[in-house]
Amino acid sequence: MKNFDISVLDLAPVKQGKTIHDTFQDSLSLANHAENLDYKRFWLAEHHNMESIASSATSVLIGFIANGTKKIRVGSGGIMLPNHSSLVIAEQFGTLESLFPGRIDLGLGRAPGTDGLTAQALGRNPAIINEQFPRQILELQKYFSKENSNALVRAIPGEGLDIPMYILGSSTDSAWLAAELGLPYAFAGHFAPEQMDMAFKIYREHFEPSKYLDRPFVLACVNGVAAETSEEAHFLSTTLFQAFINIIRNDRKPFPAPVEDMDEIWSAMEKSMVLQKLKFSFIGNQEEIAEQLKNFQEKYQVDELMINSHIYDHQKRLESYKIIRKAKNSLVG
User: Fold this and answer.
1) What is the H or E stretch that residue 60 is in?
2) CB 105 within 8 Å of CB 65
3) Domain 1-163: assigned CATH number
4) Helix or strand or coil: residue 123?
5) Pairwise CA distance, residues 257 & 57, whole Å
6) Rounded to the nearest 10 degrees, how much is the dihedral formed by the CA atoms of 205, 211, 212, 217?
7) Which of 43, 173, 176, 281 has the greatest CB tally within 10 Å of its CB?
8) Which superkingdom heads the taxonomic lineage of this protein's source (predicted)?
């Protein structure tokens, strides 16, 4: 089994009965906890118009987390690039890298991170996304390059800085792009598991070495809910299940507390849909998590596994990441 790093994906989840200020403090607490447990990186994801997720101003939140930690890498998982000007993102991340040298990652996606009406409010043009996204990545590479110092438009801060870029995907489209550009590839297995196998196959088989990367680098994001007992873990995971039911029902309310019986909440069809979407969810005690990690890694051979954990109780969430770290450490790579 190939050895792999583990990292954290945080959506800055807003919980029922809590404020957004509470959310940000919990995110910082989690980042410090992850740093102490030697997780490799802490990423935040851009979403909009959702009562349950507070990471819309992703660059600002990255700065808050980086300022409150010391060594863990902090970045975006990701910035939805067609929502923004390439120059503005270059300047924002140039500023972050200048403030926190050697600690900033720039993960880039093409999806809107929201609904169609909000995507329109963000100024997206769906007709040109497929050509706009690759062009914007090339623009970012140009703005970050030393060679751009003679250009009429420059990113200051940003120019000449080494800011690692990752292509994010939830289908096979971005796998082709990441392979063509020779960039690391991160797949959103935590909510879109259906095409992960094919996306990794495409990326690995068609990867072209670049000045940024000489061999494929694969990162998979999954859900993780760990506890001292299997029973407690499955109880805690009902917050995750309810969150996905709310997505299916187009109900964006804050994340709910766990419940004893999911069958009182979901229909048979909803249950099937949720469990399909949450195929890559590791739920259980330390031994069970270790076995699930082992089985996943033996099949996919990823370079890094990023864990997203929807747990209502903050202390239980911290404990979950601690147990996952212990489970990972128990594996022999």
Assistant:
1) helix 58-67
2) no
3) 3.20.20.30
4) coil
5) 26
6) 20
7) 43
8) Bacteria
End-to-end CA distance of the chain: 5
**pLDDT tens readout for residues 16-55:** 999 999 999 999 999 999 999 999 999 999 999 999 999 9
Strands of 175-321 (E only): list them. 185-187, 218-226, 281-284, 304-308
- What token pair was written down for 33? 């906890």
In the numeric block, which tokens belong to residue 224?
A: 């993780």
What digits encode the pLDDT tens for the residues 77-131? 999 999 999 999 999 999 999 999 999 999 999 999 988 999 999 999 888 998 9
Domain coordinates of the chain in residue numbers?
1-163, 217-333
Give the burial string for 260-289 (b: 16+ CB within 10 Å, else e). eebeeebeeebeebbeebbebbbbbbbebb
Both tokens of residue 283? 């739920």
Say if residues 108 and 43 touch (Cβ distance below 8 Å).
Answer: no
Task: Find residue 167's DSSP bridge partners.
Answer: 108, 185
CA distance 201 to 149: 38
Distance CA 15, CA 23 (A): 8
**Cα-Cα-Cα-Cα dihedral of 256, 245, 267, 249, to 10°?**
110
Q: Are 203 and 232 in contact (CB under 8 A)?
A: no
Q: Any residues with CB less than 8 A from the CB of 255 and at least 6 apart, and which? A: 13, 14, 15, 16, 52, 239, 242, 243, 310, 312
Task: Give the CA radius of gyration of the chain.
Answer: 19
**pLDDT tens per residue, range 276-328:** 999 999 999 999 999 999 999 999 999 999 999 999 999 999 999 999 999 99
Is residue 221 predicted with pLDDT exceeding 70?
A: yes
Among the listed residues 93, 100, 95, the one whose alpha carbon sits nearest the alpha carbon of residue 79: 93
* Among the listed residues 212, 72, 64, the one whose alpha carbon sits nearest the alpha carbon of residue 137: 212
Taking residue 73's Cβ as centre, other Cβ atoms within 10 Å add up to 19
Give the predicted TM-score (pTM) of the model.
Answer: 0.96
